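Translate structure to sequence.
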């Protein structure tokens, strides 16, 4: 079993500490700042209280993600488990980025000059998160293993 202790310290710190905090911001937006959750990425949109269930579904998912990222990465050192969690979150990040793109496109705001501070914040958080997850899954920054005379050795 490959151990997460072989993962670079950056990944271990990020996944155990920062990732849960980022997810908790999603909890805050969806449970307590629903209007901001709507108008941030879609300035011409209006919050509809009849759709509050959508916010609680999203907030509940963000809460589950915060718990999973905090608990799983602390309860196991199995790198396969860490990669499975990060791959699942990568899928969610890609869906979010597609959603941001479609939202900007629908609003004719694809040009960076048309972006609001909220747009920059969304993209400025999702893009690095997505790249960090992808880099982890692809072993970027991990010690290289080379086969020398049939034996694997760390370089």
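Result:
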């Amino acid at each position: 079993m490959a151990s997460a202790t072989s993962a670079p310290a950056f990944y271990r710190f990020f996944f155990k500490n920062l990732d849960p905090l980022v997810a908790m911001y999603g909890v805050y937006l969806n449970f307590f700042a629903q209007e901001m959750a709507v108008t941030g990425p879609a300035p011409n949109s209006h919050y509809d209280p009849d759709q509050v269930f959508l916010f609680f579904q999203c907030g509940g998912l963000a809460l589950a993600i915060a718990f999973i990222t905090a608990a799983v990465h602390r309860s196991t050192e199995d790198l396969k488990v860490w990669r499975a969690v990060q791959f699942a979150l990568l899928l969610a990040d890609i869906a979010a980025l597609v959603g941001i793109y479609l939202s900007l496109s629908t609003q004719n705001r694809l040009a960076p000059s048309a972006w609001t501070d909220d747009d920059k914040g969304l993209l400025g958080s999702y893009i690095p998160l997505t790249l960090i997850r992808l880099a982890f899954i692809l072993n970027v920054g991990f010690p290289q293993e080379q086969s020398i005379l049939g034996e694997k050795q760390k370089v």
